[in-house]
Amino acid sequence: MRLEFHQLDQRGQHLRVQHPARQKQLLASLASSGQQTPIVVVAVANQPDRYLVIDGYKRNT
Fold first, then answer.
1. Number of domain units in the chain
2. Residue 48 lies in a domain
3. What are the pLDDT tens digits along the chain (61 aa)?
4. Domain-embedded: residue 60
5. pTM of the model
6. What backbone torsions phi and psi does residue 6 show, to the nearest 5 degrees?
7. Residue 46 is part of which domain span?
8. To which H or E segment does residue 40 belong?
9. What is the rounded CA–CA span in Å between residue 45 and residue 12?
């Protein structure tokens, strides 16, 4: 299934520890190779076309 970014609900993202250097490296990798591993999502109840990200907030390999 292909989803657009605006369809994703990232409720737990603010709980993650921020690593600016790693984020810069990840963004460069995503720009050159794209997303390599799918993320895990579940449908949000009573909201069509909305999905909650369960795993894979920031992953590229």
1. 1
2. yes
3. 777 777 887 776 666 677 888 878 877 887 887 776 778 888 999 998 899 888 766 654 4
4. no
5. 0.52
6. -70, -10
7. 5-55
8. strand 40-43
9. 17
